[in-house]
Amino acid sequence: MLSRLYTLWATLRTGLWFVPTLMAVGAVGLATIALNLDAGLPEERAQQFWLHSGGPEDARNLLSTVFSSMVTMATLVISITMVVLTLAASQLGPRLVRNFMGDLRTQLVFGMFLMTIIYCLLVLRTLNSELDISGVPHIAVTLGTALALINLFALLFFIHNLARSIVSDTVVRRVDRDLRNTISRLLPAEDDGQPPVEQPTADDVLPADFDERAASLWLSGEGYVQAVEYERLVEIACRHKAVVRLDFRAGHFVIRGSHKADIYPGRLLGPDLATEIEGAILVGEDRTAVQDLEFSIRHLVEIAVRALSSGINDPFTVIAVIDRLGAALGDLMRRELQPEVFCDEAGVVRVVGRASSFHGLVDVAFRQIRQAGATHPAVIIQMLSIIARLAVKVRLSSQRDALLDHAAIIAEAGRRGASEASDIADIEHSYQAVQMALSKSHASGKTTFQGADQQPGDDFREGDQPRMVSPRRLLD
């Protein structure tokens, strides 16, 4: 359920309409309150210096001027925003447009203009030439003037914020912040006092005859897997006394009839179970960061790859991206990655999925930058330097192996792409520094997953038993 709510919230948060719509509704409430306050305002209080004290024509002219000015300013803001979004899409990547649209400051400025326009319209309709001065809503007119002044400063703030938003370093920081928030939300920090352990895999826990006795449920939906409600799947599998294995994860594009969930034992698969399982898998048109760690990493990589294009050729932006990717990988190395095995409260395996490995995440972070920047020694050296710095954070042998493998590939690409002997020597020196740093890292050896077969019981017949594992955190 939380995954569905977060998916909905992510869609609303990255839209330009949600916050302005809320503020437009607020304008109706604000106008109603202001007009009611005017109805109970004593005549002598209406002469306060800070209140509008003119007649109905003066009030109508003032609010009409404010209304037309706000419409003009809103048109200007929308035009500027479209120009900036076009520039950002061409230079930084079209997928980053959602980051600009999700900027709360931009949404608030749009909302302020829309709120003022609607407020002025609602107050204007109460003004007519037959009113005497005592019937003029002085508080409402004064509040309209105050909103106009606020919008002037909001326009200045918007121009300042928009000018900063197209600077590449600002975009890199914003995308990196989204990535780090995703990491913190999906992966809890491990207790430094506890020894790190490798996650169990499907081969560790599934029955030996799983492939022979399982039945396949082919998905009827098509699109990007936005989230998988593992906790709900565990509850479904436990209720039906089954084991479910998925051949996809969040972020994968599933084609109708080509991706499946395997149900063990196969005799349990029926229309009701199939409907329940598909209902726990959220498939949509867009890829999201709800459960997909690679999503935000790819945003940073896209900035770097575009910066390496011949039309832009900006290695400094690439180096900034590599620094942020290195910091994010360092954060990942001290956290427990998303598990592939999910158990019920008794510790019985119920769901086996797919999850991003550290090796795969490093590959997503560096592969395309390595391919595009092979002829840029500075980029190659920077990637090797970041890997060397990550050596002190190594906690598992799988982490060390992943860094060593990618360092070797990066160094080889740099040797082939460099044309100067001095550049090749610098790349070789950086690679040797990586090897030395990783050889000194105190990575623990792989912890062998200990699992024991469940004794035959009510859930399964002889030969149907899944394995027992320690209960683990269930991803929502």
Automatic annotation (TrEMBL):
<keyword id="KW-1133">Transmembrane helix</keyword>
<feature type="transmembrane region" description="Helical">
    <location>
        <begin position="12"/>
        <end position="35"/>
    </location>
</feature>
<feature type="transmembrane region" description="Helical">
    <location>
        <begin position="108"/>
        <end position="127"/>
    </location>
</feature>
<protein>
    <submittedName>
        <fullName>DUF2254 domain-containing protein</fullName>
    </submittedName>
</protein>
<keyword id="KW-0472">Membrane</keyword>
<dbReference type="Pfam" id="PF10011">
    <property type="entry name" value="DUF2254"/>
</dbReference>
<feature type="compositionally biased region" description="Polar residues">
    <location>
        <begin position="444"/>
        <end position="453"/>
    </location>
</feature>
<feature type="region of interest" description="Disordered">
    <location>
        <begin position="444"/>
        <end position="476"/>
    </location>
</feature>
<feature type="transmembrane region" description="Helical">
    <location>
        <begin position="66"/>
        <end position="88"/>
    </location>
</feature>
<dbReference type="InterPro" id="IPR018723">
    <property type="entry name" value="DUF2254_membrane"/>
</dbReference>
<feature type="transmembrane region" description="Helical">
    <location>
        <begin position="139"/>
        <end position="159"/>
    </location>
</feature>
<keyword id="KW-0812">Transmembrane</keyword>
